[in-house]
Amino acid sequence: MLLDAAMECVLAVGVRRTTLSDIARTASVSRMTLYRRFPDVRGMLSALITREFGKILADANRVAAGEDTARRQLVAVATHTVRGLAANPLMHAVIERDAEMLLPYIMERIGTSQRMAEEFLRAQLVAGRRDGSIREGDPGVQARTIFLLLQPYVFAIRPATSDLPLEALLVELARLLDAALRP
């Protein structure tokens, strides 16, 4: 309920103009109730992004479940996640109105959602070694490398698709990932 209210506010006015008072009013709760859970808007936004990313990743996992190898699952989840994030209203709002809020996650540190992505990638890499579909290598290094490859797709997908179709870029991304991971 609180995160839904935060989403509504961010979509309406952007992150910088959203206040905890706005969110409390939208959620029909007192500000104190909200402050007990989230000390500031940034913490709430972080929780909201983590929730949205978790939903997209869960959906991507369902889509990829039918793939016959861990490598194909990893590729399917990666491309489906990029597609999902590209279509996500929250990501659109943050990138369009408050892109500077993403800079710390590009330049300074790895956030919770980014760690979730890396952990998923690491698990798929290990599974791919077990089933013989992914080449040898340090799974931590490989996971970080794949993550660093995927991140610009999420942040720059709008200008990248101004003259090229998203699906064509995702097909090429899938080919690139598949080739890089083959034994």
TrEMBL record:
Transmembrane segments: none annotated. It comes from Actinophytocola xanthii. GO terms for molecular function: DNA-binding transcription factor activity; transcription cis-regulatory region binding. Keywords: DNA-binding. Residues 1-56 form the HTH tetR-type domain. Residues 19-38 bind DNA. This is TetR family transcriptional regulator. The lineage of its organism: Bacteria, Bacillati, Actinomycetota, Actinomycetes, Pseudonocardiales. It holds the Pfam family TetR_N.
